Amino acid sequence: xxxxxxxxxxxxxxxxxxxxxxxxxxxxxxxxxxxxxxxxxxxxxxxxxxxxxxxxxxxxxxxxxxxxxxxxxxxxxxxxxxxxxxxxxxxxxxxxxxxxxxxxxxxxxxxxxxxxxxxxxxxxxxxxxxxxxxxxxxxxxxxxxxxxxxxxxxxxxxxxxxxxxxxxxxxxxxxxxxxxxxxxxxxxxxxxxxxxxxxxxxxxxxxxxxxxxxxxx
Length: 217
Ligand code: SF4
Hints:
The protein is mainly α. It is built from eleven helices and no strands. The protein starts with a helix and ends in a 30-residue tail after the last helix.
């Protein structure tokens, strides 16, 4: 099976396996998703979701993030790790939104990824999940690992992995593709001891029963 054929089969099978796959960060609007995504760096979505209810209540607008004292924000988000840098990014992001965008989250990848604390990955998360715009594929640790194991890429650099995936899958699937792979990575194809025996994709997976075959040492 060629890489293209494998991608075509995955494009059909993954939505059948994970029809309910979605972003697992809780949010009610684009600003909340932007903040939650910044907090999710090096942290689980479950942990972020524990912190955000009180944060979103304290800071309902971009101006609130621009104005909240660093120490107060650090205290609220402490349990997500790297809280000093994250607090700095979120306050800077709030100020940039107020200064450059009238407090409104922009809808382009260039404007979003220029915000403090938000690179291409964060921009793709917000565009895909808050605005329904398929601008790219979010490549996190799960998507990177599964793309290698499933033989969809030979690259480990997230930017190159994203380019490979964008060539293989139709644009309308880009946001969902990352959800499908993340869900499969969390539930079946874990970094250590993946469940190849029970895996729905084992027939087409070149790494079945040898999951480290494609992983760079
Ligand atoms: S067969 Fe194994 S390596 Fe391949 S996708 Fe399934 S769990 Fe992952």
